[in-house]
Amino acid sequence: MSLGVVTAPISLHLHMATAMAPTPTARLLATLLALPAAHAYAQLPAAARGADSPVVRASRRVDAVTASLGSEPLLRIGHGYDIHRMAPREEAGQPLVISGVSFDGSDAPDFELGCIAHSDGDVVYHSVVDAILGALTLPDIGQLFPDNDPRLRGANSEIFMFEAYKRMRERGYLIGNVDVTLIAQRPRVNVRAVASLSPQCTRLNTDRVP
Q1: Does residue 51 sit in the same domain as residue 95?
Q2: Which of 18, 22, 193, 208 gives 66 a disulfide partner, CB atoms 3.0 to 4.6 angstroms apart?
Q3: 192 and 159 in contact (C-beta within 8 Å)?
Q4: Pair type for strands 10-16 and 75-80
Q5: What is the pLDDT of residues 158-173, one digit of tens each?
Q6: Which domain holds residue 106?
């Protein structure tokens, strides 16, 4: 019999680690801004229109930035959602874990229910991972880490977080912000206390908002 569920819908946005993305709009804007200078350049005597002129140098810089950034958009938005059933600890076989914090008396107060899941069932970590993967248009967490893989039985969800973070950085992105909504009747969760204990910000190399 189910004694409750815990779920965590999440929204997040990723931004390019570089200052400018080479979208067609950005390139068009750079071109339009350069038009006045290009017109003035065209009026210069031939001898003054050398390879080291300010306009040519500016054009080279725009081309270099455009070539170095690839074709990724400047901003990506992802949404993640995870839900798990809770049951007595004996049935679940493991304690409840929320955002890397274990409710077994070690990190947080002991809670009599555990999470029914193949891994540790951390709904916050799973949702963040899914949001990152979704923002990058990659396969979701269930495809990358299937629940029929015996190696992942009881696995710490940090494994999934590390993999999602690695793929995100390989694409040149950083996390802008993550908005988490935790839904559970029990246990009573002190969000600030959990946030202070959670290693999630460290794992994602983000700042903690007080």
Answers
A1: no
A2: 22
A3: no
A4: antiparallel
A5: 999 999 999 999 998 9
A6: 4-16+76-204
